[in-house]
Amino acid sequence: MLAQIEALMLALRPEAQPVSAQKLCKRLQIRMSTLLRCLAYLGEQDMAGQAGLGWVHSEQQGERLLLSLTALGHATCASW
């Protein structure tokens, strides 16, 4: 899963606007379930009492899940 996490972070890095989860799945050639597992680890929300890293911001806009890097996420990518 580390390869998918790195690919997700690097795909979001150059984006100025939030990107739909659906579009990212197609671009990265991964399933939505894999993306959601990555989000549980990288996101800002608590999952089952475990805090995420806060590198990826997600927001629901109607049917669409939009993703973008947080300032911490950008800083983390820059350090790679």
TrEMBL record:
<protein>
    <submittedName>
        <fullName>Uncharacterized protein</fullName>
    </submittedName>
</protein>
<dbReference type="InterPro" id="IPR036390">
    <property type="entry name" value="WH_DNA-bd_sf"/>
</dbReference>
<dbReference type="InterPro" id="IPR036388">
    <property type="entry name" value="WH-like_DNA-bd_sf"/>
</dbReference>
